[in-house]
Write a structure and sequence with these properties.
Helix content is 86%, strand content 0%. It has 3 helices and no strands.
């Protein structure tokens, strides 16, 4: 549970950095995202989920076997 809370905290830090550092650019990005169709956003989301799972898999495996 401790590891899970640490991971959630780190995700919040990483997610919050662009809004803190570049609020004007994030507003522009939100406008661009709003114009994208749902299928494109879903595909981008699915790709990120798969990439995240691959990273977690290799990190938990200890990066051995390369």
């Amino acid at each position: 549970m401790e590891l899970f809370l640490c991971v959630i905290g780190m995700v919040m830090v990483v997610e919050g950095l662009p809004y803190f550092s570049f609020p004007e650019r994030m507003k522009d990005l939100m406008r661009v995202m709003e114009q994208k169709d749902d299928t494109t956003l879903r595909l981008m989301g699915a790709a990120l989920v798969i990439l995240g799972l691959v990273i977690v898999f290799f990190a938990r495996r200890g990066l051995t076997g390369f």
